[in-house]
Amino acid sequence: AKPALNVHLFADFLKRPDQISAAREWRKEFGVKFFVASRWMSDEVLRELPGADVRVVPSPVSDVFFETALGAPMKRPWRWAYAGRIHPDKGLDQFLEHLLRAGGTPFQFEILGWWCGNRYESWSASSEDFEFRRRKLAFLIDALKPKSRLMKTEKALANSFKKIDAFIFPSIFKGEEFGYALAQALAAGKSCWISNWRGHRDF
After folding, report:
1. Can you tell me the mean pLDDT for 24-49?
2. Radius of gyration in angstroms for the set of CA atoms belonging to the chain, rounded to a whole number
3. What DSSP character marks residue 33?
4. CB 185 within 8 Å of CB 83
5. pLDDT class for 84, splitting at 50, 70, 90?
6. CB-count exposure of residue 9 (10 Å: 0-12, 13-18, 19+)
């Protein structure tokens, strides 16, 4: 019998031909079980490695987010928030563009995250396309001036979720394998407005 090998894969695996080749070699020598965070990721791995033993294990969410679900409901104006990387692939530019065309927003909107403006973490077709979308996103944030804060701990993010009514996550990132921030918002008892995309479909 082949020795057992458990391998946890992330979305970057699909961008790395060397890792895919290595995984094919592992399967020749070991009884490999691949663990991924969503059914979308499972389908993509099976596309590259037909017949592989792939198991979906959703990412765990800290108890601090479940604790926030006990908070009192908010009063109007409603407060919405996005949490995650401020990056063109996260779909924020499309969401903010709709707000701008609508003449602003009847609710308070906050960005809980950090700028991540390098193309290395992008799936853009070209550097020109990425740069255009990055500048567009910066322009929209400057025009609408939503509140923006960096969350340094899970506890800080959970406390911020206490103060919002709805969570926005319009990501179009091709490597959206699970949607950890989405799981955190759901655990906190918040309404979620998300893109029907990749790992989000598991919800």
Report:
1. 86
2. 19
3. E
4. yes
5. confident
6. buried
pLDDT tens-place string over residues 111-160: 888 777 555 455 555 677 778 888 888 888 887 777 877 777 888 888 88
Report the C-alpha gap between 195 and 203 in whole angstroms. 11
**Residue where the block lists tokens 């990501």:** 171
Q: What is the pLDDT averaged over residues 84-100?
A: 82
- Helix or strand holding residue 135 (H, E): helix 127-144
Vertex 169: Cα angle to 164 and 171 (nearest 5): 165
Q: How far apart are CA 54 and CA 33, in angstroms?
A: 6
Exposure of 9 in the CB half-sphere (CA atoms within 13 A): 34
Describe the chain by its helix, strand, coil percentages, rounded to 5. Answer: 45, 20, 35
Tokens for 59, please give them: 């990412």
Q: What is the β-pairing status of strands 108-115 and 147-149?
A: parallel
What is the rounded distance in angstroms from the CA atom of residue 16 to the CA atom of residue 13? Answer: 5
User: Tokens 């020749």 correspond to what residue?
Assistant: 28
Angle at 71 between CA 70 and CA 76, to 5 degrees: 140
Task: Show the tokens assigned to 178.
Answer: 């699970």
Among 75, 77, 111, CA closest to 92? 111
